[in-house]
């Protein structure tokens, strides 16, 4: 029990440290606000998922315990966005502007999505892991390339706010991170899940057709992300589409 508690504290501390480092980078203006926001978007999910394997063993309540970490962050973001807590430093780090209400859209959606895949889908679901990769590696990286001077020179005909270069970055970023995480969670050392004193195999079995399946998933999320939308729901729509296609092809 003490070992599991220590691992939980480690994962929580890792998540908090990651946010603090990016808050410092943004507020000391060592990195631009937009870049820092995207670094958080790209890195937080994979870092959290990969930290699951720091646990030497898992019990039936481990997913729910771990899901409290993104849930806590989500509630904190919501409290700042609703004006209940002063969070100027976080606003400067995670928001496009100084509008605190942005925290109750993108960052809150991002956090709640990771609560869902942790507590419900957990470590044996390639669909959940791939959905996180598409959100982080795909949707997160697209603006870093698409909103450059070169990127803006090639807008999409059906949505001038999006670009061909951004969509290409979305596709390749989502595909490569998906492939990496699926391989990471299917590695040979991940053979057992200890639950109720029984040893149950739960590792992801990597299949060769995943190489092609991940292309279809990445293509679908790239197309959806490129569509003109009035609501800022990318952080929900992209993983939802990834789920839907993933359950068909994985």
Structure commentary:
It contains eleven helices and four strands. By secondary structure, the chain is mainly α. The strands form two sheets. A two-stranded antiparallel sheet has the order 1-2. A two-stranded antiparallel ribbon has the order 3-4. Helix 3 (62-81) runs antiparallel to helix 5 (106-121), helix 5 (106-121) runs antiparallel to helix 6 and helix 6 packs across helix 10 (210-226). The protein is globular, with a radius of gyration of 18 Å. It starts with a helix and ends with a helix. The model is unreliable at 189-201 (pLDDT under 50).
Largest sheet: 2 strands, antiparallel
Based on Cα principal axes, name the global outline: globular
Q: Secondary-structure element sequence?
A: HHHHHHHHEEHEEHH
What's the tally of helices? 11
Low-confidence stretches are: 189-201
The total strand number stands at: 4
How confident is the prediction overall: mean pLDDT? 87
Strand fraction band? 5-15%
Taking strands numbered 1, 2, ... along the chain, how are they ordered across the largest sheet? 1-2
Radius of gyration based on Cα positions? 18 Å
Structural class: mainly alpha
What is the CA–CA distance across the termini?
35 Å
The percentage helix is 55-70%
